[in-house]
Amino acid sequence: MNQKQAYKKSSFGPAFFFLGRQKRAALAHYYTFCRMADDAVDEPNENPQRTLQQLAQEIEFVYLGAPKTDWGHALVDDVRKFNIPRDRFTLLLEGMQADLSQKQYATFEELNWYLYRVAVIVGKASLDILGVKGDKADQLAQTLGSAVQLTNIVRDVYEDAKLNRVYLPCALTGQEILTNQNVALVKQKAQQAAQLARENYRQAFALMDEFWPLTMLPCRVMGYVYQKNLAKIEKAGLLIPTPLKLTKFEKIQAVCYALIKTFF
Predict the structure, then answer these.
(1) Contacts (Cβ under 8 Å, ≥6 apart) of 25
(2) pLDDT tens across 44-68, in order?
(3) What is the DSSP string of 189-230?
(4) Which residue positions in the chain have pLDDT lower than 70?
(5) Cα 36 to the chain's mean position, in Å?
(6) Contacts of 187 (CB under 8 A, 6+ apart)
(7) Burial, 54: exposed, middle or buried (Cβ in 10 Å; 0-12, 13-18, 19+)?
(8) Residue whose C-alpha is closest to residue 155's, from 93, 235, 219
(9) 149 contact partners, CB below 8 Å, separation of at least 6
(10) DSSP letter at 118?
(11) Which of 3, 44, 183, 224 is the most buried (most CB within 10 A)?
């Protein structure tokens, strides 16, 4: 799958639609890197650790201006043009390494370490490309990124458990979750995660009001799409064996709401 197909098939696609060509291409290049890192641990080959090391090495080459791969060449101009710091790549790889080692988290405060690396840092890179920087931008990346990833965690409890990944702080193994041991505790932790996500969405949307509305349109689209997905999951009872996602019509509804909030 090429870069354009990759992001269009993702939940990020609707948010990318409203950007100019250069910014859309840069986000597609960055998303391609994220997708490769994610696939290295979610669909591992014989040596996923080596794949992560190869990605890290290519990022070093990118910042030296001497990439070895097609995707590295695509990123060179982006990191210079949009002043994208190296940690937008290296910290994401740390998060992927945690997935590979099946790291668990005893509290939601500990989970923030993971949220920062796999979601907040992606938000920061996205805002770099949008040209939004500073303390308020960092707060927006923190709140929106955390909300989105918490939504993913709530949505994918059973899918993650199949890979023996447990993000909710419930001190259970993936197998114990799959065999429905202590369902009440898992549901309680999922409810807490959903509540944290809702609060982060609230703060993120409030922060968006402090920036130029058109600049925030991709962020609003992203936020409303994922917020709507969270509401759908909560309405269905939270712990759904098969991940519950939005239909195309429901995504269009979220996009339209973002447009209304932007222009009116």
Answers:
(1) 78
(2) 677 899 999 999 999 999 999 999 9
(3) HHHHHHHHHHHHHHHHHHHHTTS-TTTTHHHHHHHHHHHHHH
(4) 1-18, 44
(5) 13
(6) 238, 239
(7) middle
(8) 235
(9) 114, 115, 118, 119
(10) I
(11) 224
Distance of CA 236 to the CA centre of its chain: 23
Q: List, in order, residues 6 or more apart from 225 with CB less than 8 Å away.
A: 11, 14, 15, 246, 251, 254, 255
- DSSP 8-class letter at 180: T
One-letter amino acid for residue 38 of the chain = D
The phi, psi pair for 126, rounded to 5°, reads: -65, -40
Closest CA to 253 of 229, 237, 235: 229
The whole-angstrom separation of Cα 75 and Cα 62 is 7
Of 42, 252, 33, 29, whose CA–CA distance to 152 is shortest? 42
Written as six digits, the tokens of 164 are 């023996």
189 neighbors 219 (Cβ within 8 angstroms): no
Q: In this structure, which long-range contacts are made by residues 187-190, counting pairs with CB atoms below 8 Å and at least 24 apart in sequence?
A: 187/238, 187/239, 190/154, 190/157, 190/238, 190/239
Amino acid making up residue 249: F
The set of long-range contacts for 76-79, using a CB threshold of 8 Å and a minimum separation of 24, is 78/25, 78/26, 78/29, 78/30, 78/129
- Please state at what angle helix 121-130 crosses helix 217-235, rounded to 10 degrees: 150
Q: How many residues does the chain have?
A: 264
DSSP state of 185: H
Rama region for 26: left / alpha / beta (φ>0; ψ in -120 to 50; rest): alpha
pTM score, whole prediction: 0.90
* Cα four-point dihedral sign 247, 241, 236, 167: negative
